[in-house]
Amino acid sequence: MQTLEALQRQVRTAEDLHSVVKTMKALAAVSIRQYEKAVESLAAYQRTVELGLRIVLTAGLDRMTIGKPAPRRGVGAIVFGSDQGMCGQLNEQIAAHAVYTLQQVGEPPRDRRVATVGARVAARLEEAGQPVAERFAVPDSIATITPRVQELLLHIEAWHAQRQLDHIYLFYSRHLSGATYQPHTVQLLPVDQAWLERVQQQAWPSPTLPTFTMDGERLFSALIRQYLFVSLYQALAESLASEHASRLAAMQHADRNIQERLEELRAQFRQQRQLAITSELLDIVAGFEALTTTPRQPSQRS
Questions:
Q1: Which of 69, 102, 219, 220 is the least buried, fewest Cβ under 10 Å from its Cβ?
Q2: How many structural domains are present in the chain?
Q3: What average pLDDT does the segment 219-238 reach?
Q4: With the CA atoms of 131, 117, 100 and 175 taken in that order, what torsion angle do they form, in degrees rounded to the nearest 10?
Q5: Are 157 and 120 in contact (CB under 8 A)?
């Protein structure tokens, strides 16, 4: 049986851990909302890019851009995970989803060029038999997302120019709501022809169509680059929101476990303390009785 001092130390340790878990829960909830706002802010920017593409495509570039898909020369993928732990099964799930999807593409693992954003997801991919060629650190704030996206864009351009990779996939966890998320795939390149057709058929928000004076192909390339920027930024922000959502779920589970453990420890402490108090009272009563009881005198014989 544990002593009162040992139980008291365990209670204090559990209370300190509970305080840390509650702080992590609060930070995760705040971070989720920040990254959600970052994703929401992309909507207007993406809408502007689509409107620009609508004008360029309507001007006649559709005959050059919308046609038969080109044969695949090489496959590249960027998998988004986490650098830090305590985020549940996020890395395991997105790694399994990426490996399964890439297997359907048909290229053998060593012929694929895979980069990761997050050290932990890289380890999961390699455990599944998928070599990782490049690794990038996960941005630690909203302010550092844009530099990382620009770095990834330069990396994709190098893949395309030096290694002839013309099919690029993004694998990331899409945040749904609260502490829930699901693996998601985006084919970054080649640009989805069906999407371009939908963009071209969108209704213009005003009665007059604008015109442009710069070279149409250059404008189209610039708009596609902005589309790639939006896609990568969204993947990073969604992945970060999902990471914190998974961490929030893990902390909620830990919070419940710690509360249950605290209740058990406190109950044991109260019971042990009551036993100690009862034992002390019994000792006091026994001592008092021993002091107050008059010893019997031996009888004298006549």
A1: 69
A2: 1
A3: 92
A4: 170
A5: no
